[in-house]
Amino acid sequence: MAAQDPRLMGVRPNGMMDTPEYRVDVNWDRAGALGVPLSSIHSTVATAFGSSYVNDFIQAGRVKKVYVQADAPYRRLPQDMEKLYVRNTAGKMVPFSAFASGRWTQGAPKLERYNAFPSMNIQGQPAPGRSTGEAMTAMEELVGKLPQGISFDWSGLSYQERMATKQGPTLYAFSILVIFLCVAALYESWTIPLANLLMLPLGVFGAIVASSWREMPNDVYFQIGFLTTMGLSTKNAILIIQFIKERMGAGQGLIEATLDAVKTRFRPVMMTSLAFFFGVLPLAIASGAGAGAMNALGTAVCGGMLSATFIDLIFIPLFFVLVSQLFGGKKDKQKDKQQPVKKFDTPNKPEVQSV
Predict the structure, then answer these.
(1) In the 8-state DSSP scheme, what is residue 79?
(2) Which of 70, 87, 250, 303 could be joined to 206 by an S-S link, Cβ 3.0–4.6 Å?
(3) Cα 331 to the chain's mean position, in Å?
């Protein structure tokens, strides 16, 4: 099923193919009736066809080990097993053929285990244009169609990716929180950073559109570019809002200061943004070794930079004015209520009487 899924390619089991093997079947009831212990059967076969350590002896001042094993001509063929004898509990020798038989079959030369359970290691890769996350999701869907009692687990890089994917929403939320706190510390205000945060979707929109247009997968390199775009989206807003606050501090009104700041900061914003765009553009069009990582990162950052530059120039002043009128107006009213009204007595002017 996995080999036929269009989201996957190169799916294959990672293991050795079944090979011919000689299987020995022991009739345990007959062995028990003959008084042959289980340990004696195992030790006899292991010693004859393998080897068993007996003791050491000294020869020419050197210690040498003694191993017991059947001679080579008597352990070459499966029929040689019928020539073995096993001692029973009564001390008599019982022929091996009296309670065991052998047959040829097919089996795995190596037993695969994962967490002490019989397992099969399956490897593969995503199809072109598909991400590793989509490929892992496809495998999980296929495993869900298997009979009950069959489970799965990830290992290696797939396990690390699955663990890192669970932390993705937390990291994005933490990044937004850090941006908010940094901007709040810069402006010494809790309301003005909201205008900066409203810019994030516009920059992220360009990164998603550019990566989707080039059919880039949602991999770790795209996510790095995604986070970079979030920071760059607030950069243009900082350049304009800081200038607005300076003009308002000089006595200009909100609308007048906003329009003046946009006109004045238009050239610096365009120069810095385009300089960064053309600096990252070689990553988006790179080729050769490692081009996949560079293309994914460069495409996300270039797309986000374009949208953060041209779209934000329109919405930055709009959002700042809306946030300032929404929260700033309430603060001004509260200040007016808190400040006492001072009354000044005007001196009486002398009345001029006409004669």
Answers:
(1) G
(2) 303
(3) 45
352 in a structural domain: no
Q: Round to whole Å and give the CA distance between 158 and 281.
A: 31
Do 296 and 228 share a structural domain? yes
- Contact call for residues 205 and 235 (beta carbons, < 8 A): no
CA 37 – CA 28 distance, rounded (Å): 9
Q: How many CB atoms lie within 10 A of CB 321?
A: 18
> What is the tens place of the pLDDT at every residue in 292-341?
778 888 888 888 888 877 777 777 888 888 888 887 654 444 444 444 44
Domain that holds residue 321: 169-335
In a domain, 148, yes or no: yes
The tokens for 217 are 């997968």
Q: Which band of pLDDT confidence, cut at 50, 70 and 90, is reported for residue 250?
A: confident
Say yes or no: 96 and 216 in one domain.
no
At which of 70, 91, 109 does a domain end? 109
pTM over cut 0.85: no
Among left, alpha and beta (phi > 0; psi -120 to 50; other), residue 353 is: beta
- How many residues in total does the chain contain? 355
Q: Are residues 47 and 123 in the same domain?
A: no
Which residues make Cβ contacts (< 8 Å) with residue 325, sequence separation at least 6? Answer: 254
Q: Which two tokens stand for residue 149?
A: 């009692």
